[in-house]
């Protein structure tokens, strides 16, 4: 007998095969998090990007991202994914308001929107979250690197190593905070 329930916030209560089937049939709620380091005035100085293997086996730059679980608030989802990807000492400043800076709609069919995820139709609320603590790559991340704004906006940029339109999400985040 499976002891997991629909209100289990420690993980998905669906088996992996069920998640795959749900992804095929339903839009899935996600949070996309752009971790940043700020100066004393709150201006963004650096953006943290992960290096990880994509679903297709390519090594790509990535952002902190993941599903929102049942009975989990947006703030809890943001905190959980930051802890999972950046470590327990990251000390994020979770936004007071759950209003995202943008909504990214990822579609399994390329070209429907600038955002693409071959696994699913995902509706992702995107946040810029300042990080004050110590960070290190966790779980399946190979590396965590912090990039200055000029470095990200240069002609040859780490954003070129991102897939699924996430480079556009970073550019929108930088514009949102007045850094681009």
UniProtKB/TrEMBL annotation:
| Residue ranges that the Swiss-Prot or TrEMBL entry lists as coiled coil | none
- What's one GO MF term for it? hydrolase activity
From the UniProt annotation, give the residues forming the signal peptide. none
Keyword Hydrolase part of the UniProt annotation: yes
Which superkingdom does the taxonomy of this entry point to?
Bacteria
Any one Pfam family here would be DUF4916
Any keyword Hydrolase? Answer: yes
Q: Which UniProt keywords apply?
A: Hydrolase
Q: Which InterPro entries match?
A: DUF4916 (IPR032582), NUDIX_hydrolase-like_dom_sf (IPR015797)
Name by which UniProt lists this protein: NUDIX hydrolase family protein
Q: Which organism is it from?
A: Brachybacterium massiliense
